[in-house]
Amino acid sequence: MTTGYLSTKLEVRNAPEKGGYAVYALKTIQKDEVLAVWGGQVVTLAQVLELTREEQGHTIQIYDELYLAPMGMEEPADYINHSCSPNAGVCGQISLVAMREIGIGEEITFDYAMSDSSSFDEFDCACGAPTCRGLVSGSDWKRPDLWKRYDGYFSTYLQHRIDKLRKKAMP
Ligand SMILES: C[S@@+](CC[C@H](N)C(=O)[O-])C[C@H]1O[C@@H](n2cnc3c(N)ncnc32)[C@H](O)[C@@H]1O
Ligand SMILES: [Zn+2]
């Protein structure tokens, strides 16, 4: 059973080089199309810290200390990998949309900086993009270069935090 949504134009495939699985386009996708809506159970930071490393990696942060976690359910949207040169972006807090047209066979990726501000899920990035920043960390959302590149594609709770940081820098 799944509580989330993955577009029928997408497919989860084996990708051992990506730590297990990855999500690919089976059909051409237009800019702004909804690709996925994350599902699962709403859990607190304290509950997330009780999960295994793998389970933690399959959560999506939706507020400062709230997350959606699969909790044993099959959530295909949790197999969408990070890239430092992504083709998808966050819309609201739980949806993923195409940032540009996506071709058949392309892997669907988003930048985890668009949704994540936690330190428990940091990893060395293997996206291979020329702009790859190496370590993916829970403080990447604070980078002004990413604010510019992903304008309109940050999770709502992070956009509020970015707006506050901006105000502080330019009173
Ligand atoms: C939401 S899961 C993505 C699906 C994952 N590939 C899997 O099969 O379980 C997030 C985890 O995948 C891995 N991951 C995602 N994007 C990655 C990337 N660009 N480079 C290295 N590992 C990545 C990291 O271990 C991360 O904690
Ligand atoms: Zn990268």
**What general outline do the C-alpha atoms trace?**
globular
* CATH level-two architecture: Beta Complex
Tell me about the biggest sheet? 4 strands, antiparallel
Order of secondary-structure elements? EEEEEHHEEEEEEEEHH
Structure characterization notes:
This protein is an alpha+beta fold and 171 residues long. The chain has a single domain, classed as SET domain (Beta-clip-like), CATH 2.170.270. It is built from four helices and 13 strands. The chain has a four-stranded antiparallel sheet, with no helix packed on it. It has a three-stranded antiparallel sheet with strand order 5-7-6. The chain has a two-stranded antiparallel sheet with strand order 2-3. The longest helix is centred in the C-terminal third of the chain and has 14 residues, at 156-169. The model has no long low-confidence stretch (mean pLDDT 95). It binds S-adenosylmethionine and zinc ion (ZN).
Give a summary of the structure in a few sentences.
With about 170 residues, the chain is α+β, with helices and mostly antiparallel strands. It is about 15% helix and about 25% strand.
Write the layout of secondary structure elements.
Elements (H helix, E strand, L loop, with lengths): L4 E2 L3 E6 L4 E6 L8 E4 L3 E4 H4 L4 H5 L2 E4 L2 E4 L11 E2 L5 E4 L3 E4 L10 E2 L12 E2 L10 E2 L7 H6 L6 H14 L2
Parallel strand pairs: 8-11
Antiparallel strand pairs: 1-4, 2-3, 4-10, 5-7, 6-7, 9-10, 12-13
Bound molecules: S-adenosylmethionine and zinc ion.
The site of S-adenosylmethionine has 17 residues, from strand 3 and strand 8.
